[in-house]
Write a structure and sequence with these properties.
The protein starts with 19 loop residues before the first helix and ends in an 8-residue tail after the last helix. The chain has seven helices and four strands. The protein is globular and about 55 Å long. 22% of the residues are buried. The protein has 196 residues and is mostly helical. One of its GO terms (molecular function) is ATP binding. This is Myosin IC heavy chain. Belongs to the TRAFAC class myosin-kinesin ATPase superfamily. Myosin family. One of its GO terms (biological process) is endocytosis.
Length: 196
């Protein structure tokens, strides 16, 4: 890119469980390490780009029968660099989110990671405000009877998700609104249809 002053493109593809998510993370870490820049705004851009990984994984990945951290969406990431090769911005476009996973999973699969992170590690303030309980209490997180995943720590991952939200610039009120919506989704299964 620096040598030829031309845009570059990397396409990561493969079948389920092939390691696309991990390859993309390693590629982003490599670019952050070699792209230079000691300016604080450059470092902030790098930190924000890297923070998108745990955040998008929390809201877009789930355990499937073939992969404990399966991406259930597609992602197009565009990194912008200045003339000396320092990252100055990024845009992410998500597509094809498997929305049906929210309301149904087969045995030994899980809903999106965020629901287990939130129900297992929500701070007491959220538990009090939104009535959050353990994942066994909700239809959308208990139907498949898969609450834990080998090699994953939902509570630690929740803390990483909160930190990623902070790094990308989500204010506390915005975070509260996100968790308010997640609470509503968890409780929506209990709602009854009213014919008017």
């Amino acid at each position: 890119m620096k040598a030829y002053k031309e845009n570059q493109c990397v396409i990561i593809s493969g079948e389920s469980g092939a390691g696309k998510t991990e390859a993309a993370k390693r590629l982003m870490q490599y670019i952050a390490n070699v792209s230079g820049g000691t300016d604080s705004s450059i470092q902030q851009t790098k930190d924000m780009v890297l923070a998108t990984n745990p955040l998008l994984e929390s809201f877009g990945n789930a355990k499937t029968l073939r992969n404990n951290n399966s991406s259930r969406f597609g992602k197009y990431l565009e990194l912008q660099f200045n003339s000396v090769g320092e990252p100055v911005g990024a845009t992410i476009t998500n597509y094809l989110l498997e929305k049906s996973r929210v309301v149904g999973q087969i045995k030994n699969e899980r809903n999106f990671h965020i629901f287990y992170q939130f129900t297992k590690a929500a701070p007491q303030s959220y538990r009090d405000a939104f009535g959050i309980q353990q994942p066994q209490s909700y239809v959308y997180t208990s139907r498949s009877q898969c609450f834990d995943v080998a090699g994953m720590n939902d509570a630690a991952d929740f803390n990483e998700t909160i930190e990623a939200m902070r790094i990308i610039g989500l204010r506390q009120a915005e975070q509260d609104n996100i968790f308010r919506v997640l609470s509503a989704i968890l409780c929506a299964r209990w709602a009854k249809r009213l014919d008017i």
